[in-house]
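User: Just a sanity check before I run the rest of the batch. Below are the structure tokens for the first item. I only need the designed sequence back.
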């Protein structure tokens, strides 16, 4: 198919950003190469860009809007790197834990967060059932497709209320894919709708259905976005990022 109009958006985006695909992929265990964190965005280290790339208040505001939850509550960051997110959440009264499968970046976890930031695999987590109220998820697209269902089932097991999916989707805005090189390290290339299908078939249900709630989370998104481009292609796509446990 030579005409972009006859191709899926995933095919079009994979062609456009082919230079990113395969970069920092090591093996099928879902752990990206160490170089991923040394050249996280624009040849900047993960630690150097963290403050600009992560906004804990934005996420806490979204959780409050979608589920009506206010701190204190317990949250698991799946794909927590060196645990810097835990400190940010803690400042807002959230008891955050993390799980990360890259030993290199995990080894940089500050001493005070090592108890809560675990080196492990989201497909088999060392937590009891219902250990966390919420999950903040960014790690799934780095796994091969055939491992996604197992990982989501495990997330369903350890969470009590719901999950915020902030992994890469192929129908995100081109600007954000290019600026953050979001296809680097990925093994699963799915649209928002395809990701939502995976969450639903593994026990979750959509958390956002009311139009007024969708308006509210879109407002939070717009107010938090300091860049000239949007993370989400449109308001409707935000429905596919929040899932409740039945």
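Assistant: Here's the designed sequence for the first item:
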């Amino acid at each position: 198919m030579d005409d972009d109009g006859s191709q899926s958006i995933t095919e079009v985006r994979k062609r456009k950003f082919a230079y990113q695909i395969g970069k920092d992929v090591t093996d099928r265990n879902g752990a990206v190469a160490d170089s991923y964190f040394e050249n996280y965005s624009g040849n900047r280290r993960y630690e150097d860009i963290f403050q600009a790339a992560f906004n804990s208040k934005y996420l806490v505001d979204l959780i409050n809007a979608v589920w009506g939850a206010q701190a204190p509550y317990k949250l698991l960051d799946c794909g927590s790197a060196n645990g810097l997110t835990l400190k940010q959440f803690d400042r807002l009264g959230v008891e955050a834990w993390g799980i990360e499968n890259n030993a290199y970046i995990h080894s940089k976890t500050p001493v005070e967060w090592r108890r809560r930031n675990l080196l492990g695999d989201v497909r088999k987590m060392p937590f009891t059932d219902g250990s966390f109220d919420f999950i903040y998820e960014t790690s799934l697209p780095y796994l091969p497709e055939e491992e996604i269902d197992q990982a989501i089932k495990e997330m369903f097991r350890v969470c009590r209320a719901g999950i915020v999916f902030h992994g890469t989707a192929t129908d995100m805005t081109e600007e954000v894919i290019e600026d953050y090189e979001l296809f680097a390290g990925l093994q699963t290339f799915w649209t928002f709708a395809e990701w939502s299908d995976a969450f639903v078939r593994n026990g979750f249900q959509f958390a956002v259905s009311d139009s007024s709630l969708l308006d509210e989370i879109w407002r939070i998104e717009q107010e938090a976005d300091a860049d000239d481009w949007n993370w989400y292609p449109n308001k409707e796509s935000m429905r596919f990022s929040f899932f409740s446990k039945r």
